[in-house]
What does this fold into?
Amino acid sequence: MRIVLGVGGGIAAYKVASLLRLFTEAGHDVTVIPTEAATRFVGVATWEALSGHPVSNSVFDEVHTVNHVRLGHEAELIVVAPATADLLARSAAGQANDLLTNTLLMAGGCPVLMAPAMHTEMWQHPATQANVETLRSRGVTVLEPATGRLTGADSGPGRLPEPEAIFTAAMALAGAPVAPAGASVGPAAEPDVNAVLATGPSAEPLAVPPLAGLTVTISAGGTREPLDPVRFLGNRSSGKQGVALAAAARDAGARVRLLAAHMEVPAPAGVELVQVETALELRKAALHAAADSDVVIMAAAVADFRPADVSGTKIKKRDDVADPVISLVRNPDILQELVEVRDAASRNQLIVGFAAETGDAEGDVLEYAEAKLRRKACDLLVVNQVGKDRVFGEDTNSVVILSRSGSEPQEASGSKSDVAAAVIDRISAELSRVVPPA
Ligand code: CTP
It folds into this structure.
């Protein structure tokens, strides 16, 4: 695998020489790009000797190879360690003032892992935290720093995780085997993205976020179907559950796209927002977003019908003509279409539907929900029992998660955040089952 190893200007740069060795011994082709400041801690000669490649931090070296474009394009994985506060800030701002930040901007779809190291105050500063949030919202995996002794007399969160831990997290993110080249790599050696990695005896455990490196699209809220320029047919969905899911997926390390129909709550920070109004707009946005999503969650309350005719002017009451009758036409079933598109393309994508059900004399909630799961053919169906005291807009929820893989139905209840966390946990578990080894 072609790896770009960016090195920031911090004292922990010396530990990255060991990380480089781990990559090369595992058979990877590594190009090191230190920042100007990094070369004051570890010289270019060290990086060249260990990587076997020329090393530069200037966009003006090797201009004939268009280095600042080529390195980013060719990289299959980019690892930045130590990611200093300055480097996180420059990357979050999209700056391109040296070869490393250029390369980060040029890296199209390859996974990017950043391992921060700095003093605790710098790490906890709202500016740094905002930059980390921005980077995570764009799909960059930013590891939590380890806790322990820092450069001076101080200690706290801010230590660079041990090279072995960064190596294992990077391999897990890229879906590559962890064992060095030549070693026997049986199925058990496949990396587990959900693995919790020990960073050494004196350091904190380093958790790789379960959805790191994945893109999750979530629809939320209720669609509105216009009748005329001032009126619409809508529903009572508040969007609270979809928003809680978006926050939970973001916290699990995913890049999150929220397709928001009408919602009574704001979108969470750190997610990409796509505003929609009608079912047809949501369909277009969902099909577009699904094309590069690993997970799609349809939590929106989509109107099953829309007015057959939309008046271009306000419909007036008139004494000389009969009162209008609204005829409706069926909206496409977006969830079903997403499944069909995925299956036609044989894509590896997990699709989750929601269903609001009531029981009646002919069947109970679970029977109806299981029939819906079979009909819609999504992977998971999150079932709400509606009616009685269960109303839209509440802050709590109680659901049963049904799986097409046949595993036991799972109940989850509590605040909408609790339910969202349970759904995201379940998605992580299903993904570790369905994603084939690289
Ligand atoms: N859904 C969709 N497109 C529609 C309608 C619904 O994608 N036109 C999705 C919803 O986002 C949700 C699931 O399908 O994930 C709900 O299915 P639906 O059949 O609408 O469930 P109910 O509203 O419970 O409908 P029914 O009246 O068929 O029981």
User: Anything to note?
Assistant: The longest strand covers residues 350-357. The chain has 13 helices and 21 strands.
